[in-house]
């Protein structure tokens, strides 16, 4: 195999792995923004909160970050339900969520970020686990275990959520709630309760995505901002509210970025992600897997 | 067991606009009662009041379901549905970006209905073969007639004992109107339902109704306890039959 082909293959594989991780970051937005119509731009900050929880428990007690991510979904779920209740009472109930709700989540973003900065400072933090160093090599392709594990865990997370949405009554009610609130009441479901559960789930995914993030790379509190545009782009590209779409779009963006970074330099990567988004919106406005 | 609905002396409206004046209405067990009235006379407001969407200023609404009385006033819509009342709303209100099957499955959301999901689903597909053909199609992409069938099917999935239908004929071609009306009668027989149906199409509604009320300017202007009595009414002859 030529050097070029090897390099290309390696960058595709690492793009797929990173893409899987992007999907875990984006899935929370896909639920909140795509299914509930809530523009939770604080989500990346909550992901960083998840990273720092993993950091603390790892550095203090040596806990595995993935384990911490899974355990932290429980408090994050309840945090999400509380946030939604506040949001619902203050804005949604009065119909003022469009601008004020956005301001609310902006505020939450800054408070979370500054809170983390006050506690941890602005230095980069990292976790230590046996699987951060090693890497499998298959020909020219390297499979770093620190990327492989978040990828596999992300796939499991998305499959689990997809099964929940397709197979359970609550899951289907979540998919329906933004389409017609009154019709959902006619099915015997309370829309506010359904949305609270969904937002709790959306927030819970931040705990896991945060753990994946700190496995992949060292983190500092304001890092979430770099991801806001990218994960919204992934959600729209995949098709609003579609989890399979979110996954595929995340992988496309991951691969595109990785190839660009390898051959043209990393500074072009964001342009490629948004370029894909623009093309997709022209060719297929509902997104790849959108229900138009 | 039998279910019924009683509306007693209801006054209701929107803000300072009063729409319903002293409306009383009774749907006895296993009866099909039609509520007739042209646009803007309060049919939909009465249905919204029964369903807990509009809060009345005074009066009582009591549903008797399987022999037990429930005061509906003050209950949320979803609580009323949970008792076993189903509404096929005006405009159908399907979930346009969910498939036919997903719409039907959501119909069975209430716990009592979940237990009978398989049977009811099988019956829906048997009664509406079109829905079976289109089960993985998005509801929003179907024709008006098909959407009305889905709306009926979805209401049935909740295994109701009382079925309320708000203007099933609106926006449908004449052939579909009579099919829809037939279907309501058929479903009523199959599930021993008590049916309240608001309609403007007198001729179609009277084909299946046991009893009827005419609502004019928010008041019950006429009550006919049998189809014959309805046919003989001067009010109906003038307004609905053009005689």
TrEMBL record, chain A:
Transmembrane portions of the chain: 12-34, 41-60, 66-86, 98-120, 147-165, 197-219, 231-256, 268-287
Family: Belongs to the binding-protein-dependent transport system permease family. LivHM subfamily.
InterPro entries named in the record: ABC_transp_permease (IPR001851), BCAA_transport_permease (IPR052157)
One Pfam family in the UniProt entry: BPD_transp_2
Subcellular location: Cell membrane
Endpoints of the signal sequence: none
Broad class of the protein's primary localization: membrane
GO cellular component: plasma membrane
Protein name: Branched-chain amino acid ABC transporter permease
PANTHER family to which the protein is assigned, alphabetical: AMINO ACID ABC TRANSPORTER PERMEASE PROTEIN, BRANCHED-CHAIN AMINO ACID TRANSPORT SYSTEM PERMEASE PROTEIN LIVH
BP term (GO), one: amino acid transport
Domain of life: Bacteria
Lineage, broadest ranks: Bacteria, Pseudomonadati, Pseudomonadota, Alphaproteobacteria, Hyphomicrobiales
UniProt topology in membrane: Multi-pass membrane protein
Keyword ATP-binding: no
UniProt-recorded Gene Ontology molecular function terms: transmembrane transporter activity
Keywords, sorted A to Z: Amino-acid transport, Cell membrane, Membrane, Transmembrane, Transmembrane helix, Transport
TrEMBL record, chain B:
Function: Involved in beta-(1-->2)glucan export. Transmembrane domains (TMD) form a pore in the inner membrane and the ATP-binding domain (NBD) is responsible for energy generation.
A single GO molecular function term of this UniProt record: branched-chain amino acid transmembrane transporter activity
SUPFAM superfamilies: P-loop containing nucleoside triphosphate hydrolases
Protein name, entry field: ABC transporter ATP-binding protein
Natural source organism: Bradyrhizobium centrolobii
Pfam families the record matches: ABC_tran
Gene3D superfamilies: P-loop containing nucleotide triphosphate hydrolases
Family: Belongs to the ABC transporter superfamily.
PROSITE patterns: ABC_TRANSPORTER_1, ABC_TRANSPORTER_2
Gene, per the UniProt record: livF
InterPro entries per record: AAA+_ATPase, ABC_transporter-like_ATP-bd, ABC_transporter-like_CS, BCAA_Transport_ATP-bd_LivF, P-loop_NTPase
Alphabetical UniProt keywords: Amino-acid transport, ATP-binding, Nucleotide-binding, Transport
């Amino acid at each position: 195999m030529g050097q070029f082909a090897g390099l290309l293959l390696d960058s595709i594989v690492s793009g797929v792995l990173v893409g899987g991780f992007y999907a875990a970051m984006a899935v929370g937005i896909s639920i909140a923004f795509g299914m509930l119509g809530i523009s939770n731009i604080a989500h990346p900050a909550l992901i960083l909160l998840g990273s720092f929880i993993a950091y603390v428990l790892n550095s203090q007690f040596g806990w595995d970050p993935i384990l911490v991510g899974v355990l932290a979904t429980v408090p994050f779920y309840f945090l999400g339900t509380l946030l939604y209740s506040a949001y619902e009472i203050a804005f949604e109930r009065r119909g003022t969520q469009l601008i004020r709700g956005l301001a609310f989540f902006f505020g939450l973003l800054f408070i979370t970020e500054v809170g983390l900065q006050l506690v941890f400072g602005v230095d980069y933090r990292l976790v230590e686990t046996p699987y951060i160093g090693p890497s499998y090599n298959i020909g020219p392709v390297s499979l770093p275990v620190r990327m492989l594990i978040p990828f596999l865990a992300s796939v499991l997370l998305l499959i689990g959520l997809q099964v929940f949405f397709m197979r359970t009554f609550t899951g289907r009610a979540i998919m329906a709630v933004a389409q017609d609130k009154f019709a959902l009441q006619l099915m015997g479901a309370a829309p506010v309760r359904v949305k609270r559960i969904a937002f709790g789930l959306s927030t819970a995914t931040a705990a896991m995505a945060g753990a994946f993030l700190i496995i992949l790379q060292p983190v500092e509190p304001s890092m979430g901002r770099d991801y806001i545009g990218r994960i919204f782009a992934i959600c729209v590209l995949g098709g609003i509210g579609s989890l399979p779409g979110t996954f595929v779009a995340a992988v496309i963006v991951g691969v595109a970025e990785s190839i660009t970074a390898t051959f043209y330099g990393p500074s072009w990567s964001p342009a490629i992600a948004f370029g894909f988004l623009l093309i997709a919106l022209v060719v297929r406005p509902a997104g790849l897997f959108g229900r138009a | 067991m039998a279910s019924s609905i009683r509306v007693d002396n209801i006054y209701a409206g929107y803000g300072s606009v009063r729409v319903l004046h002293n409306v009383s209405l009774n749907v006895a067990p296993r009866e099909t009662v039609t509520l007739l009235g042209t646009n803007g006379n309060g049919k939909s407001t009465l249905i919204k009041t029964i369903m807990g969407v509009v809060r009345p200023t005074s009066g009582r609404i009591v549903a008797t379901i399987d022999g037990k009385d429930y005061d509906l006033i003050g209950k949320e819509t979803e609580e009323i549905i949970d008792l076993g009342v189903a509404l096929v709303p005006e405009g159908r209100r399907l979930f346009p970006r969910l498939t036919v099957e997903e719409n039907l499955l959501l119909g069975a959301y209430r716990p009592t209905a979940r237990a009978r999901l398989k049977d009811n689903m099988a019956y829906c597909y048997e009664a509406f073969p079109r829905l079976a053909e289109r089960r993985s199609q998005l509801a929003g992409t179907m024709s008006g007639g098909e959407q009305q069938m889905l709306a009926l099917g979805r209401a049935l999935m909740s295994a109701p004992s009382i079925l309320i239908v708000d203007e099933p004929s609106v926006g449908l071609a004449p052939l579909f109107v009579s099919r829809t009306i037939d279907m309501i009668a058929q479903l009523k027989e199959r599930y021993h339902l008590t049916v309240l149906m608001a309609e403007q199409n007198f001729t179609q509604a009277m084909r299946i109704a046991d009893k009827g009320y005419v609502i004019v300017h928010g008041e019950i202007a006429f009550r006919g306890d049998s189809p014959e009595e309805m046919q003989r009414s001067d009010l109906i002859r003038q307004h609905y039959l053009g005689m």
